[in-house]
Amino acid sequence: MAIVATAAKIGEYTIAPIGRQLGYLIQYDSNIISLREQASVLEKHGAGVQGLVEAAARKGEIVLPNVQGWLTSTDEVCEDCRGFITEQVKEHQKCADRLFLDFKSRHRISREAKERRLRVDQLLRDGVFEPVSYPAPPPKVGSSFGGDWEVFESRSSVFKEIMEALEDDKLGVVGVYGMAGVGKTTLVKGVIKQAGECKLFDEIVMAVVSQVPIVRNIQGEISDELGLKFEEESDSGRARWLCERLKQVKRLLVVLDDLWTVVDLEAIGIPHGDAHKGCKIVLTSRNQDVCNEMNCLVNFPIKVLPDSDAWKLFRKMAGAIVDTPDLQPIATNIAKRCAGLLIAIATVARALKSKCAHAWSDAFHQLQNSTSKNIKGMHANVYSLLELSYNFLETNELKSCFLLCSIFNKELDIPIEHLMRYGMGLRCKKPIEHLMRYGMVLRLFENVQKLEDARNRAYSLVDTLKACCLLLDGKSVDSFRMHDVIRDFAILVALNGERVLLVRDDARSIEGLNKNALDQYAAISLTYTHSYTQLMHTHYLH
């Protein structure tokens, strides 16, 4: 028995391998044909998987790593098989054509064809994928912001202070406020980008609130950035689901841009305070009072750009054309006329880029004469923003006070006492019935009989307009200033919209107007230019 077992073992180790080697010679043609057919099947299957991958990429999905690895291996094997069949088989065929049977070459090619066939079969078995990809996570807030964003030198300190506030665990809600178009959102986007690069937060989400807060829209913006899909239909149900999702983020930054009024954070689903001490909230608004009412522990005012930064921005957007000798003086004056308001600088620079010298001169003339809404983009980009702020003023008295401020010299601080006197004069001088046929009248100090009460009301109105960023601080607490672009807007509203004021910075511009044309206005403000560049204002109150 031992001899039989030993003989069987010897046969297993000798006869079987010999038979396999002979099989390579006998099955030469079938191995080649089989390899060619299966390699073709693999190539077609690979093309199908590649098609699915490309479709997934078009949808922004992420391809599974094993799918991409399989495609790479498949390409390599198919390329190898094509080369093998083309080169090796042709070489052996040359030998056969010469009636010389090269058994060694025949054996080698058949064996290699079989080995390749086994690799092809394995790839076919491994090439069944369901699915080939998965949805990509939403892009991080700030990832789409311009890569060349830079902090203006004049704003580097406030930028740094905001960043420090974000790192302070005691400051849960931070406010950023300033006039329309001053660059609040631009600055906050820079803060977001910096916070992301420094990995201060695990998640950053941002939503635009606008004049009329719509809870569902705000929830939608935040959920889109989180990749969260709501199943609930009600706003309250979505708020609970969003709140639970945000609580899972240890360090969270929520940016609510363009607040016009108080919003209920709980109704939206934003956890804050004791509900989530790792949640930091940044608000931007045109109204400082809104920031205060939202319990901001610190508020950062964003002021207009100084001349150096304004020119740097203007030059960057208008291009090197501003450096030409014939355009530089007028370009410098145009940039100054935008008075550091970021959106005005950007709008005017883009409108004049690549334009001829005549267009630049015309633009400067319009900016000087408060008709700059005719410059491309000024009405859509600048005055439309200011119009929202104006329309959002709560009372006609505030609107009237704002319009009346435009009659004063743009280069001087305006004493609040003078505003009070003109307001009282307008209130008493002309019967309301006479002016109502021309549109809205200036309604100031209604139900006020005493000068002291009018003075108190004037200070209160000015403070409110300052909080709305429609007026600026003066050099003293008893005065204020008006930004040039905002003054131009007020003049246009008073002249064309409400038709209550006529303001001219060049007295000669009203020459030729008859008395009937002037009689419709409640007040007329003229600037006379005398020698030695002395300026004098004359106001006519009907």
UniProtKB/TrEMBL annotation:
Keywords, in A-Z order: ATP-binding, Leucine-rich repeat, Nucleotide-binding, Plant defense, Repeat
The keyword Iron appears for this protein: no
Keyword Zinc-finger assigned: no
InterPro entries, sorted: Apaf_helical (IPR042197), NB-ARC (IPR002182), P-loop_NTPase (IPR027417), Plant_NBS-LRR (IPR050905), WH-like_DNA-bd_sf (IPR036388)
Residues of the NB-ARC domain: 160-319
A Pfam family assignment: NB-ARC
GO biological process: defense response
GO molecular function: ADP binding; ATP binding
Family that this chain belongs to: Belongs to the disease resistance NB-LRR family.
Protein name: NB-ARC domain-containing protein
